[in-house]
Specification:
There is one protein chain. With 305 residues, the protein is mostly helical. It contains 15 helices and 2 strands. It has a two-stranded antiparallel ribbon with strand order 1-2. α2 crosses α3 and α5 crosses α12. The radius of gyration is 22 Å and the shape is elongated.
Amino acid sequence: MGILANVFARFVDTDKARVFGIRTDMLERLGLVLGRDRKAQLGVAIVGIVGFMAAFAPILAPHDPMGQDFPVLLEPQFVGAGALGTDSYGRDMLSRLIYGARISLLVGIGAVAVGAIIGMVIGLVAGFFGGLVDDVLMRMIDIFWAFPYLLVAIMLVAIFGQGLWNVIIALGFAYIDDFARIIRGEVLALREEEFTLAARSIGLTSREIMVGEIFPNTIAPLLVMYTVLVARAMIAEATLSFLGLGVRPSTPTWGSLLGQGRGFVTEAWWIGILPGLMIVITVFGINLFGDALRDAFDVRRSEGG
């Protein structure tokens, strides 16, 4: 508990010019980037709107996303069957799209969190201790790296079965190697910095140095990687659901809606087109926001500017 308290204190220690592990000058630069970059502002707006939809889906959805109304099967929008029409079971498309945002974001954020936690630990230990420990851990990561991430996710879902948490865990394991590599690279540079050597000289343990001194300095690149991979995870979830390997078919996700719409392209185009547009717009917004984070947290660019 003492170590955790020490870590938290370091994360919010304003005397060290850090807030939650991020240097305040980088946060100021992020504010400048968001203030002058229209693309970054658009990205924040898109992410905010989708996040608002996901958080308040029960309030925003006009109908039960699972409620079936057979008299209005495949009815187009603005014909008394909902603002965006109905699907092949008479379910309201607008409600299913709103609830789909909740599932898609949950899978994206949760899966990347799983990969980030495990990969971060591996990268910290490998980069800090080096030698045989580094060789063994990174050869394990190389094995992960040898397989396409989507193939790993499909394999794990096939083994453990469908379901929301199974998809999150499967995709999370597919992203371990990305985080392990970037954290290891940061640690290799940070372990030779003066503040690390000073921590050794005053008798701090290896765990205290890794958690309290080195890890807070990896937060910025970790956030950039996290944001980029959330967009990738959402696409992966949509792909799995489209193939029938994601969450259960009855669960409204953008990928499953897209898969349902492929059989009605000519007679009910909105079933497939609308969730596809939501995926494209959301991923576009996340990538724009990720670009803003990269610009703000790039030390070389901030020092050069």
